[in-house]
Amino acid sequence: MPLTRSRPGSSGPHAPVFTLARVIRKHKDEMLVWVKERLTNGMAEGIGNRLRMIARRAVGFHCAEGLIAMVLLCLGVVQSHSTLPAPTH
Q1: b vs e for 29-54, b when ≥16 Cβ sit within 10 Å of the residue's Cβ?
Q2: Residue 6 falls within a domain, yes or no?
Q3: 48, part of any domain
C-alpha cells in the first residue's frame, strides 16, 4: 500500500507508518522549502529569546526608552563609547 493513503483507525505494527505518512503529507510544502533553501526560523527564535531575557533584566525601568536602549546595546546595533573615570589610587 503506498504511503499516500492511510487507513482510518488503523492499529497494529503498520500504524506508525501511516502516522508518518500523514505528517509528511501535512508538512510536505514546508519540508520541500527547507530542503531547497535550508532556511529555518532559528534566527527569529534566537532573537526572540534574547529580547525576552533583556526584558526580564529591564524590570524596573521607568520608561520604554531604557528598554529599547538596552536592546539596541545588547544586540550590537549601537556601540557604547563611554569613557571610564581614571582610577584614584
Answers
A1: eeeeeeeeeeeeeeeeeeeeeeeeeb
A2: yes
A3: yes
